[in-house]
């Protein structure tokens, strides 16, 4: 997992929009969020720092890249699978500080846990996939719709959360039909609302659920 994150950080240095999506087990220990790779050998709480990956590493890689916009989506707010051998009883993930030009989305509120759902994807990711491909929705509108739908399906037991330091508009699937954005695009000389993905493959055994590490770059609209 660390190798994939390192490659991701190097890739986004060439510019564009960085997007990191993770679905799987995550936990907080002493106020730090960790992502748990498949095959992690964790017996006690003090071993987490060696076997797991500090989620803030992704944000640090993004900040170091210096690109204008970065997005992190964490569907990782599950119950701690090692809770019986841990001293602390913290649930879910904790809120992370967000560098400039970043948007971080969580499957549920800080300190809470997310439902897995009955399908191939969790409830949160199911509704994210439904809304992310809809043209005309800004990133804030996409995640607001996801929040409403997840809350509806879980009877308000799961409330998706996001933290943003964005100052411009971004659309996953293109701007409104009239082309009117409500703010200045990230790079006025580029058709910034259209993206292409370059998925960084992960080694076998490093995927829990769905864990693509993606780089979305500006694409020419011609």
Describe this structure in words.
- The chain has helices spanning 2-11, 48-51, 56-65, 123-132, 139-153, and strands at residues 17-23, 26-29, 32-35, 53-54, 69-75, 102-106, 161-164, 195-200, 213-218.
- The protein has 222 residues and is an alpha+beta fold.
- The chain is globular, with a radius of gyration of 17 Å.
- The model is unreliable at 182-222 (pLDDT under 50).
Question: In summary, what is this structure?
Answer:
The chain is α+β, with helices and mostly antiparallel strands and about 220 residues long. The chain contains 5 helices and 9 strands; from the N terminus they run αβββαβαββααβββ.
List keywords for this structure.
20% strand, 222 residues, single chain, three-stranded antiparallel beta sheet, six-stranded mixed beta sheet, alpha+beta, 9 strands, 5 helices, Rossmann fold
Which fold name is given in CATH as the topology?
Answer: Rossmann fold
Low-confidence stretches: 182-222
Provide the number of structural domains.
1
Rg over alpha carbons: 17 Å
Q: What characterizes the major β-sheet?
A: 6 strands, mixed
Structural class, judged by helices and strands?
alpha+beta
CATH C-level class: Alpha Beta
Order of helix and strand elements from N to C terminus: HEEEHEHEEHHEEE
Roughly what percent helix? 10-25%
For the termini, the CA-CA separation is 36 Å
Number of strands: 9
Count, helices = 5
Mean pLDDT: 77
Kindly estimate the percentage of residues that lie in beta strands according to DSSP: 15-25%
Q: What is the 3D form?
A: globular
Spatial order of the strands forming the largest sheet: 7-6-5-1-9-8
Give the second-level CATH assignment, the architecture. 3-Layer(aba) Sandwich
């Amino acid at each position: 997992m660390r190798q994939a994150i390192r490659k991701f950080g190097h890739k986004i240095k060439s510019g564009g929009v960085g997007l990191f999506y993770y679905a799987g087990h995550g936990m907080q220990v002493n106020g730090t969020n960790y992502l748990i790779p498949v095959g992690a050998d964790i017996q006690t709480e003090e071993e987490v720092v060696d076997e797991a990956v500090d989620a803030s590493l992704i944000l640090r890689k993004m900040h170091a890249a210096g690109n204008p916009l970065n997005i992190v989506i964490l569907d990782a707010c599950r119950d701690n699978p090692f809770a019986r051998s841990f001293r602390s009883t913290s649930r879910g993930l904790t809120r992370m500080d967000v560098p400039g030009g970043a948007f971080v989305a969580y499957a549920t509120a800080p300190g809470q846990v997310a439902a897995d759902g009955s399908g191939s994807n969790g409830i949160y990711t199911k509704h994210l996939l439904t809304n992310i491909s809809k043209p005309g929705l800004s990133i804030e509108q996409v995640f607001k719709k996801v929040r409403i739908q997840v809350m509806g399906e879980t009877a308000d037991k799961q409330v998706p959360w996001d933290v943003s330091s964005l100052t411009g508009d971004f659309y996953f699937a293109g701007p409104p039909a009239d082309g009117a954005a409500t703010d200045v695009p990230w790079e006025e000389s580029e058709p910034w609302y259209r993206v292409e993905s370059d998925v960084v493959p992960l080694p076998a055994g490093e995927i829990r659920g769905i864990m693509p590490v993606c780089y979305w770059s500006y694409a020419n609209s011609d």
